[in-house]
User: Fold this.
Amino acid sequence: MGNRSAACVRNLCTFAAHFKIAFMITKIVLTGGPCAGKTTTNERIEEFFSKVGYAVFTLPEAATLFIKAGAEFLTQDRNLYFEIHKNMMRFLMEMEEDFYRIAEATGKPALIINDRGAMDISAYMDPEDWQELLRQTGHTEEELMARYKAVFHLCTSAKGAPHSYTLSNNSARMEETLAEAIAVDDNLIKAWEKHPNLHLIKSEEYVKDKIDNVLLGIAHELGIQDSVRDMIL
Assistant:
């Protein structure tokens, strides 16, 4: 009985340690319309939260990887169209899960920043096609949203700072006009509007102010805003 009790205690301790680490891992989506500043914001997130003790992982945008690799998202072949989207969703989710395990192995509080999340896919599909994709993959919108603690939507500069809108910083971008950029931005907001922790980050006169609003929002989600506010502002 003594050995069994000791083994039970060890198992409970192992479970508790695992649960504690899992509790310290926060998954956040950074999304937004074209030319919203995600790349620069991602760099600042990694720099800042690493300094305050977090293991920070910034995951690349799956759609950009697929486009640059040659995936034809605008194909008229319906079978190919769904194969691309199914595999992109699976790739995105598996990448998140892989980095979750890596974050667990650090033994530190960790922050996983997803450059777009699973629900972003819906913003680029017709509603009927999105529902068909959910049917084929066996997922629900509620399940996909629940994967993330919070969502930060960076509004496109086409809305608040049209003079700074450009296509030059992302060769995979398909939107050419301000109207197209705004339409995509609105679709992305709609895709995530049911998430309980959706933060809308509006364009500011100074990019730093926009990024600082993201840092403050993430700090709030982590429960450390009072400790780091003076370091951000």
